[in-house]
């Protein structure tokens, strides 16, 4: 299904034509993904994987509302930001409204990488006394902020991973450090476009003026183009309409609860940390000395791989980045499996019984929305294929 | 039509929320563009402009085949390049096939800016003896190439503006320097995606290995994502199916001929230079001494602005970057004006009578394709709006 080349040929062509720095996941036995819906990805054989690593498909793979918004704008106009257009100002207004009042000036780009460079350049060129990104320990944040601001520094909140409601309780990760804490610069990346290449730096009017007067007139002409902004607006709508922030709390708490039950059983689990759908499992060889259990941490994603998929492993820290609603549910699968028979059984033998299920949550309203969402999508496809 | 905010409000919101380095065209009286089709852009009042500046809408604004390809893939899968996927290898294979054999390894990114940085980093880090971009005078190119290669340097061909058939006779701009000349690195930008944020660096296997072994493992995880590559493939298809390269020769020659007639009449025109649809008009105060007529060059785009639009002015050099088929035709306008009444008359008072028309070219096959193209587009829109 959906294949132009066999997996072997795809691999061979990749070896021939794609730069070697572009490395595949699971290099020993790379995965070929041909389609995805919501929290699932499907390989060329129709095998289904629960996607716990893809931090970009923020509101779910191929969300029909996002696709529809992109299509509508692509048909109408896609041009650079040197013309006046409503989408860029509307999106900037909507983004600003989610942030503390002083964070009101947006710089749009097509890539988080460019945003990082933009900030680095800003730091280097217009405020030479400051350092790079600062991630102080929680609790000390206020004090550090006072100190850094006192020293004429700037605070940068990297929201590429944690922004847009992923931490559940707050829309932005930095808000977890208290109401009083306001960064000077906030960076955002591809999750804001659910995969559409776009990124943004939001800062204060004061810093924007400093940036401007520094003579560094960096400007990505296609950043904030009408299509990217239409997509960004649709993502904000979906987060709101489907209460994905509330869902991150609910599913995140449920997952943390399950993981804590495992922690009670397995001394290998040193800690469960995280918030919302941004959760990590700390694996240790020795609970007292907290020796990193690196080998075990590397083993687990491989073990899960064939059945579940995509746990991200940072040395001894297993990182779960669940992008979607109801990742732990079982019944939702049936919506997807109508199209593609699901060969995946709950992996009872798995070391961490992540999918030990909760029947009560099956009839949640967000699951019903998911059903509706899939129907809408099917309709859109049908219209276009007829 | 298509407006969320009045032009005044859009301007005010832009001032409040968009970084000041993001400057608009014609800042004294910025243009608000709400839709575009093929070579035309339309403002909020329905006023139509011929787009001679937009170097990104390479196969025409909102080309339905490109939109359809993007939609089809957006509905199916859009994820990073760490998974195997056919689109990235197929597109890399197709791009390589248009280039000399040794240019076979692609690095995809979401932004030409990132490509530039990639190359700068490559030069700085893996081949420290070379300089930056080299643009030697035509004719001397071979000798310079021999010299530069002899000194251990690399040649970089920037195809962001001139690639993909824009120069007409050749698919790539560097091919104008002779069959024997093969650059070491070729960079491409957003025209390859007709505006979809994407870019690419293509190089040799040898350089890719040097890059890789330098330890600089730069990799844009979303570069070469399935949607970008589907879009890139559709653009290549359109260039081929609609013979846009042949069209660039035909329309470019026609425009150059008209401009040369003007040159005979106006000593202000020092030279007409260019190839295909990449044409510049050199304005001089004194034909002998070739003193730049800077003020006049700045005046002309303003004068054309209200009727035609978008001549790009580089000091005394007026740069015409015609993105589309039949930019000089008059009859094609009727296809567009069925939807939006065209208020624009041929500007007979214009200093350079660019639109002095050629009735014989009206029934060309590419114009007929344009008509079909617009019909198809209308159908696609209709399906989605019902």
UniProtKB/TrEMBL annotation, chains A, B:
Catalyses which reaction(s): phosphoethanolamine + H2O = acetaldehyde + NH4(+) + phosphate
Signal sequence residues: none
GO terms assigned for molecular function: ethanolamine-phosphate phospho-lyase activity; pyridoxal phosphate binding; transaminase activity
GO BP term (any one): lipid homeostasis
Highest taxon, organism lineage: Eukaryota
Gene Ontology cellular-component annotations: membrane; mitochondrion
E.C. designation(s): 4.2.3.2
Reported cofactor(s): pyridoxal 5'-phosphate
InterPro entries: Aminotrans_3 (IPR005814), Aminotrans_3_PPA_site (IPR049704), PyrdxlP-dep_Trfase (IPR015424), PyrdxlP-dep_Trfase_major (IPR015421), PyrdxlP-dep_Trfase_small (IPR015422)
Entry similarity comment: Belongs to the class-III pyridoxal-phosphate-dependent aminotransferase family.
Assembly mode: Homotetramer.
Function, as annotated: Catalyzes the pyridoxal-phosphate-dependent breakdown of phosphoethanolamine, converting it to ammonia, inorganic phosphate and acetaldehyde.
Entry protein name: Ethanolamine-phosphate phospho-lyase
Source organism phylogeny: Eukaryota, Metazoa, Chordata, Craniata, Vertebrata
Name of the coding gene: ETNPPL
